[in-house]
Specification:
With about 250 residues, the protein is an alpha/beta fold. Helix content is about 50%, strand content about 10%. The chain has nine helices and six strands; from the N terminus they run βαααααβαβαβαββα. A six-stranded parallel β-sheet has the order 3-2-1-4-5-6, with helices on both faces. α6 links the parallel β2 and β3.
Length: about 250
Amino acid sequence: MAEIRDIEVVVFDVLGTMVDEPGGLRSAVHEATRVPDAATADELVALWQRHCEREQECVRQGLRPYASTEVLDAEAARRVADRAGVTDQGAIARLATAGRRLPPWGDAVAGLERLARRFPVIGLSNAGRTALLHLNAYAGLRWHRALSAEAARAYKPAPEVYRLALDSAGCPPERVLMVAAHAWDLRGAQAAGMRTAHVHRPAGDPPTDTDDFDGRFDELGQLISALTGGQAAADRGSGRVTRGGGPGHE
């Protein structure tokens, strides 16, 4: 496997890349609506996602003032409730906070912990500040820093969102690696000068033949091996001692 070299900071997308957003929404929709079959639940999740994607695009195009994902999720929850005939206000209110309770992918928690022993790791998410705080706690994602696009009052792939990560990283963009399951996200990072790596997820946006990312990986462990192998080689060449010790401490 090819190594990814000369990286100082690793930045991760969160929604869909580190947590199973569709799966978490599906569970929340089932709980709130009690729909009898999976197909109907999937239709309601698709309704939710279409609303949020459309409204985020309106924000990006200047057709709507910035509204956080918590506002958009509350709107989406109301749409889902109306479609499903749910009138219980408590159930609707809980559904509106579904974005705080998204389960991590199976390799996310351990992989992040392993990588954080070698590199500063940053979460960069379109999720609003409060939603991101609760989501990270729920999923067990431990970042060195977690950044919400709300700080830029924009949504990825707007360049000002990636600038949040680059300003925090404090190193040249070409030494910052953006990791995502969404090719559109990585294209936005490339436009900001960042290096890029795609990790496959079931609900991600796959690369096209014309995408030129630094790496494409089937799971997080492959990415970590590519990064830590390159880092170990650099350390041997410079005589530095890698933080974390030796074998078995990556």
